[in-house]
Amino acid sequence: MTIAVTGATGQLGRMIIQKLKQKIAPGEIVALARTPSKAAALGVEVREADYEKPETLDRALRGVETLMLVSSSEVGKRASQHANVIAAAKGAGVKRIVYTSLLHADTSPMSLAPEHVQTEAALKTSGIAHTIMRNGWYTENYTVPVPGAVQAGALVGSAGEGRIASATRNDFAEAAVSVLTGDGHDGKVYELAGDEAYTLADLAAEISRQTGKDIPYRNLPQDEYAAVLKGIGVPEGFAGAVAAFDIDASNGALLDDGRQLSALIGRPTTPLSDAVAAALKS
């Protein structure tokens, strides 16, 4: 069996490959990357695969049985890029695709959802066996800013009392490997989220507990939070999107209590306390 992983130089793709190497022979893994030289250290075969250049995809997918399609990072181009990959996979005779979608993509209010819905539809009409992994939020989305919050003396956001059932990239990577190397997943749609939900006030309390400092959570209006992000160097468009995601979170967009993720990985998802500790050490 040959498994190819797109986005091999990205954080999730790289992690999936590293974990796959613990399950199957490295010779059965192909890393697909726009810039192959950046994936050279992964210890597996690397092939050029540019979503915008179908000819590279045709070559990259030859001899591949299972494709791990990690969603593109280029918001606004995802649907067309993923369609290129799916078409190339069909032409190359790929037998199975596993795709990283968005939690509750079909009902989510998040601006990210429509492109995932379009990709899911393309998979369903492709005739290729597939599994849809609707990934929730990465805990790192909220813990990477933790050191800055400690320095500033407060954690800010716009999520209000919205509960967030996030999980770490490590958790999601383990789930991907479980699906890639296991049986019985064809045709399944998994809603993947952390076991225990928390609010940003809970996150601030955990930061306070671990640092011994009073780090309160300050909820800001969406435009004010976007302005804060822009002020610390986040590009204006992305700052607005992040603030909007928090508003979605306040309305329950990042909440799921089905525990399908922990069922796939065979253990509880990583506790928030562990993620905070890792962020404080970074």
Automatic annotation (TrEMBL):
<feature type="domain" description="NAD(P)-binding">
    <location>
        <begin position="7"/>
        <end position="181"/>
    </location>
</feature>
<protein>
    <submittedName>
        <fullName>NAD(P)H-binding protein</fullName>
    </submittedName>
</protein>
<dbReference type="InterPro" id="IPR016040">
    <property type="entry name" value="NAD(P)-bd_dom"/>
</dbReference>
<dbReference type="InterPro" id="IPR036291">
    <property type="entry name" value="NAD(P)-bd_dom_sf"/>
</dbReference>
<dbReference type="Pfam" id="PF13460">
    <property type="entry name" value="NAD_binding_10"/>
</dbReference>
<dbReference type="InterPro" id="IPR052718">
    <property type="entry name" value="NmrA-type_oxidoreductase"/>
</dbReference>
